Please model this.
Amino acid sequence: MKKAVALICALMLGVYSFAQTQKKEESKFNNLVKQIRWSVDVLPFTRITKFDEDTGGLNPQNRIARLDKYNGGLYLRPDLKFKNKAFSFFLKPRFNTDWREQKGMETEFYFQQAKLKMQLNDAFYITGGQYIKSIGTSVYVNPSNPYFLESGRLNPKIELRPMNFVELNFTKENWDFTLISNVHEGEAELFDFPFFEFKRQHGLLVEYYGESQTIGTIVSISEDERYHLGFYGQRNLNDATLVWFDGAVNYNPNRFYPVEGHSTELLPFEMVNGDENKNYFFSGLVGASYTFSFGPTLNLEYYYNGKGYDDKTFDLYKETVVAGSLSNFDVIFDLSNLNLGRAANTGMPYLRRNYIFSQIGENDVFGELNYNFRYFYSIDDQSSQFSSLIEWNALDNLEIFSVFIANIGEKTSSFNNLLNNQLMLGTIWKF
Model:
C-alpha cells in the first residue's frame, strides 16, 4: 500500500513537474513570438512612359533599354524582424510579378534584406547578409559611399538592389568603428554583363555622433586596387536648419568613358573602363535644409562630380552615341549595342560635373497627405529634371500614390538622354 501511495505521489510529482516545464517552454515560445514583428505591403501599379528611340540617341529603335510604353506589376513585400539582446534578424523577401509590353509576364523572387546581427558584448557586434549599406548624408547621391552610387532611386517606390556584406562593429561612447566587406554582388545590377566585374571591397568606417552633429569617414580598397576615401558630416544649426557635406577622393574608379578608335578596329569609338581612370578624382556636395513654421521643408544642394565628363569628353561621348546608333548591321551590331549600353550605364549616376539639387516636401498634411517635389539642374549643359511624389493615406492601411518624372534638354544631355517622362500610379495595402 505504501509503495502504491509513493508511486502515485511520484507520478503526480512527475506530471506536475512536466506541466511546469511545459508552461515555461510555452512561456518562452510566447515571449519569442512577441519579439517577432512582421508586416506585408501589397503594391499593384501601372506605368506610362515616353522615351526617345530615334536614331542618333542612346536607345535607337528601343534596342538597348527595351523600355515599355505601358507596363504594370504586383509586388508583395513582407517585412519580418526579430530582436533580443543576443541577436537580431531582418528578412524582406520580395515576390515581384511584372507585366511588360516587351516581354510579357515575368515573376521574380529575391531578398531585399536577409540580415543577421549578433551582439558579442556591450562593445562589439557582427552583422552579415544581404542588404543596402547606407553611408553619407545626402538625400540624392552619396559620393562618400564606396558601395552604392545612389542613396535612393529617383522613383522611391522602386527599391535599390542589395549586395552581400559582413561587418564587425566596435562602439566606444560616441564613436563607432566598423570593418566592412562586400563579399558578393548579391542583386546589384551594376555587375551584370556588359558592365563592371565584381570585386570585393574592404573598408574601415569611423563615425562620431555628437549632440547636434555627426561626422564620418571611410577608407576602402578593392581587390583590383581601386581606392576610396569618403567623408561626410551634418549639423543642426537650430530646430529649423540642418547643413551637411558629403565627399570622396577616388583612385581608379569604375567608370566608362569614350575614346577614339576601337580595340577591334571595326568602330570609330569605344566606351572603356581604362587607364584614364588611374588618377585621383574628387567629388563632393554641400547642402542645407530649412523647415518653415507652416510645415514644408526645403532642401538645396550643390554637387561637384569630379568623375563627370568635361566639355571635350562629353562631345566625344555624343559622337560615340551617334556612331553606335547608326551602326546597326552585320558584325558591328553587337559591338555598337555594347557601346550604347555602357554609354547608358557609365558607372556614374550623373554624367557632367556641376549640379544643383532642390526639393520641397511635407508629410502628414491634414493628417493623411505626403508630397515631395524635386528639381535638378545641370549647370554644364542646362538640362533639368522635375519629379514629384504624392502619397494619400486614404485609410489606415491603404496608400494611394503617384510618381511623375519629366526630363528637359537635348537627347544626349545629363537628364534627357533616355527617358523623356514617366507617370506611375499605384496603391499600397499594408497588413
The longest strand covers residues 36-51. The chain has a mean pLDDT of 90. The helical segments are 2-34, 311-326, 332-344.
